Amino acid sequence: MAVILDGRKVSKEIEEEIKAEVSACTKNGHRPPHLVAVLVGEDGASETYVTAKMKACDEVGFKSSMIRYDATVTEEIILAEVDRLNKEEGVDGYIVQLPLPAHISVEKIIDRIDTTKDVDGFTPANFGKIDQEHHSLLPATPMGIIELLKRYVIKTKGKHCVVVGKSHIVGMPMSILLAGPGDATVTLCHIHTKNLAAHTRQADIIIVAVGKPGLITGNMVKEGAVIVDVGTTRVADSSKKSGFALKGDVDFASVEPKASHITPVPGGVGPMTIASLIMNTMIAYKKRMNL
Ligand code: NAD
Asked: Of the CATH numbers 3.20.20.70, 3.90.220.20, 3.20.20.30, 3.40.50.720, which one belongs to the domain with range 140-270?
């Protein structure tokens, strides 16, 4: 039976560590760290993610604020909000929750974010430093995955890691982190990869971030592989109060018996992404306050 990589448990441990740090700072007379989330439109999943992020802030003693805009808001207004947050002294970090409505350019918004407040680690300047020893703010999901592997003492050095999905927020930075600081041999697969199974079958560690429930099945995985499932797709489920269930990209039933370690969905990577956001905000805060 595979060891479950329990992101919920590990994120709680991280939150306890940060809570103690925040408490020490405020006892010394400093203000608490402040994270702001900008939410545009009424996307159900985004709403859930932002609420969970705000809740985590409360739990560790951060100040948190949510700024909401209607889906019809103009790009100029969001850019002006970004400029305001960049200047606001009492804000240590902020996120603009993705996805944004189609008429707003994600690229333009991200380019404008002050790199010292970029706690999602999406700006080109922070992205460009991913493989540096003294990196700054790392993209939250890959950072959370590396932390989860570390806490379960899963080494990446010399391992063959296969990353499936090459998005700017997960797959691509994940592959750089693994090949760079992680010293792994990395294969990066995506929609145009021919014979995906031939690659995944060679992997010591598979990290899949695609958004296609059940894409990775037992026959695509070698015995003893470590499986990290980033996928979170809402699938209709009348047995749930919410009317939907969250499904990963891994067919858990057929993959788990072959894996040495595996993340569940939910409760694996998701909570670790939030923990990374909290860690990044703490890093940004300490730099801002010269602590
Ligand atoms: P995306 O939607 O931007 O891109 C998907 C990637 O998958 C692309 O690179 C594409 O080439 C690749 N792909 C599509 N079909 C494929 C196939 N059949 N075989 C191989 N590759 C294929 O990706 P994203 O924004 O990284 O999101 C991926 C999934 O991860 C989604 O389910 C998303 O909800 C989830 N996600 C979860 C977290 C978390 O914290 N748990 C964070 C970010 C994203």
From this structure: 3.40.50.720
